[in-house]
């Protein structure tokens, strides 16, 4: 087998991984989810879940990638010693294809807004403009353009393509967002927005805890790119001497910083326009903000800077989603990278076109289906790390970790017990609401605990038998 690509430096890996994490999830999804779920209350629950579930979950995915040294199908097969490992890896590949299909459609919208912001094309009638371009043949065109940019980067490989681009784009995103947040702070009418976003509203939190939990957990996984095998793939290109726990913390903190920063731009601006934040939904970014840019001084320049930042963030996430299926073809059947990139992009061109033409399917796939698939993927990683690899996982955690190695046993305990309960809780709640069953919080926790023990028993029998 040909030698595999590796990152040129550990910094390159960290920047690429933050690039994967920080994307539309932070800028497009996070502010409107936060605004629609009580502002500061959502922020508090979300941060708690990022720390307690996201960080150990991401670390589990890194452990699998560096230990397996392959893309998900090969890595999970060799680590589990079972054909089921390949099936789970194939499920990851499917997840990345599905997410990228809708991601590329949104990427196309952003690309269009970046290009037309200097002319203020959507300023006069933001609602009608978005309504006209959101779905249909023009949306297909911009989806294909966005996909073409992403494919062009993956085409050049891990270090000449992904690492190089991440090193430039990610810092650019941060600089632009810091500038925009500072500009926002000088605008009139934003005080209520800051109060809503940053003031701690304990009453709302206690009254709505159960309903905030689901979206907050889904967002924590989506934003950290956990559960799709993209982080596993990125970790398969790193060395033994980098510290996985340290890198994971740096990645999670940077990603959260970018999300909170985006909120500091979007939420106060929406408030300044009197846009009801709970009503924004997925179109908030395009419709509500457009109105804000229109009415403020220097709006065109600011709008261009804003959409350019979102575009770069989206590109660095999309490349991780494309890299996973492409590298799987390279690893599994020895296909040359360039041919694999063309083939997978061709498939995505078609699936994304389907979603660009149908708003209801787009919404179903980008919400419920994506959340479910990421949760199933993460659950499989937890089972393999926490219930099967165990000592091997601890050894991989410790390699290169220095003094942070002492955290390995508590991490393994979290991965084996706490996380499966949390993931089954959110999975069963989502499935329950799909079929119209809604239980109270206590019953849902009980269901998740029982399911965890059942799964544990099934895996024990399968592994030992
Ligand atoms: N984390 C990305 C975002 O927040 O936009 C989305 C994402 C990328 C999800 C890669 C999953 C993934 F594997």
TrEMBL record:
Keyword Transmembrane helix attached? yes
Q: What is this protein called?
A: NSS family neurotransmitter:Na+ symporter
Q: Where are the transmembrane segments?
A: 7-28, 40-64, 85-112, 132-156, 168-185, 205-237, 249-271, 301-322, 342-366, 372-389, 410-435, 441-463
Q: Which UniProt keywords apply?
A: Membrane, Transmembrane, Transmembrane helix, Transport
> What is the top-level taxon of the source organism?
Archaea
Q: Provide GO CC annotations from the record.
A: membrane
Flavoprotein: present as a keyword of the record?
Answer: no
Chief localisation class: membrane
User: What's the source species for this entry?
Assistant: Halolamina salifodinae
Cellular localization per UniProt: Membrane
Q: How does it sit in the membrane?
A: Multi-pass membrane protein
């Amino acid at each position: 087998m040909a030698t595999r690509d590796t990152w040129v430096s550990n910094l390159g890996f960290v920047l690429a991984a933050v690039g994967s994490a920080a994307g539309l999830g932070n800028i497009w999804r996070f502010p409107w989810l936060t605004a629609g779920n009580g502002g500061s209350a959502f922020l508090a629950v979300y941060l708690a879940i990022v720390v307690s579930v996201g960080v150990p979950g991401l670390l589990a995915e890194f452990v699998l990638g560096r230990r397996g040294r392959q893309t998900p199908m090969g890595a999970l097969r060799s680590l589990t010693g079972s054909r089921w490992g390949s099936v789970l890896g194939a499920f990851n590949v499917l997840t990345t294809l599905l997410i990228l299909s809708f991601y590329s459609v949104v990427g196309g919208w952003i690309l269009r807004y970046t290009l037309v912001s200097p002319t203020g094309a959507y300023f006069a009638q933001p609602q009608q403009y978005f309504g006209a371009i959101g779905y249909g043949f023009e949306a297909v065109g911009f989806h294909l353009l966005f996909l073409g940019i992403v494919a062009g980067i993956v085409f050049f490989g891990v270090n000449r393509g992904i690492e190089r681009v991440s090193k430039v784009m990610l810092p650019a995103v941060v600089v632009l967002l810091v500038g925009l947040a500072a500009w926002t702070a000088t605008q009139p009418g934003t005080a209520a927005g800051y109060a809503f976003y940053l003031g701690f509203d304990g009453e709302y939190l206690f009254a709505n805890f159960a309903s905030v939990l689901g979206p907050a957990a889904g967002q924590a996984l989506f934003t950290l790119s956990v559960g799709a095998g993209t982080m596993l793939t990125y970790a398969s290109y790193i060395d033994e001497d980098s510290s996985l726990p340290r890198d994971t913390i740096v990645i999670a903190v940077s990603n959260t910083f970018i999300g909170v920063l985006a909120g500091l731009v979007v939420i106060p601006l929406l408030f300044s326009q009197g846009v009801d934040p709970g009503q924004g939904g997925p179109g908030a970014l395009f419709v509500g903000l457009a109105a804000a840019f229109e009415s403020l001084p220097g709006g065109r320049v600011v709008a261009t800077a804003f959409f350019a930042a979102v575009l770069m963030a989206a590109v660095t996430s999309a490349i991780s989603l494309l890299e996973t299926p492409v590298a799987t073809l390279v690893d599994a059947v020895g296909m040359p990278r360039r041919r694999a990139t063309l083939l997978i992009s061709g498939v995505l061109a078609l699936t994304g076109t389907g979603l660009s033409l149908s708003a209801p399917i787009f919404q179903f796939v980008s919400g419920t289906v994506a959340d479910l698939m990421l949760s199933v993927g993460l659950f499989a990683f937890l089972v393999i790390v926490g219930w099967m690899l165990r000592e091997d996982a601890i050894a991989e955690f410790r390699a290169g970790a220095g003094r942070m190695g002492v955290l390995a046993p508590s991490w393994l305990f979290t991965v084996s017990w706490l996380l499966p309960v949390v993931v089954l809780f959110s999975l069963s709640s989502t499935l329950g609401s799909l079929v119209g069953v809604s239980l109270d919080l206590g019953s849902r926790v009980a269901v998740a605990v029982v399911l965890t023990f059942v799964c544990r028993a099934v895996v024990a029998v399968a592994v030992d038998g």
